[in-house]
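Protein in question passed on here:
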Amino acid sequence: MKLLMLVFALLIGAHVVLAQQKGPPGAREPLAEKPLVPPLFVDKPLPELKGVVSWKTLAEVKPVKQKDKFVPEFARSVLALDKKEVKLQGFMLPLDMGDKQTRFILTAMPPTCAFCLPGGPEQLVEVQTKTAVRYGFEPIILSGRLAVLKDDPMRLYYRLTDAVLTVAR
């Protein structure tokens, strides 16, 4: 147990030291001074935009017990979006390696941990794009066909298919 705690403490110490070091030789600015997530979006939801489905609307769902499991019960405003062309804005959470993605998770809040989802199922949308989209930390706007998932095996509530990048901020 002591060995495990020592290894954990060393990992945390190494992380702090690496975060304080400067970037590779020839880098213009230190890595520690360049945040990965734009500070404007770290602790605030994205602003609502005209013509873009709000994350507040997508959050109009509650889990209800049905037999031996919980299933989502969506508000009428959400069900009205099922199989419709919509625009969504959010942050890309890649599912594959590489700088371009065709399948990823769009999130309401920026990812701040490589091992954690930045919200519950009402703040996540599985996205499948027509063409690859370059990965970045800035919010993006996509248009595509929204599916409201009532009993997804992965417990997701939403999927956007045939998505196209509309705006990259």
The helical segments are 2-20, 55-58, 76-79. Strands lie at 61-66, 69-74, 84-94, 100-107, 124-134, 140-148, 158-168. The chain has a mean pLDDT of 81.
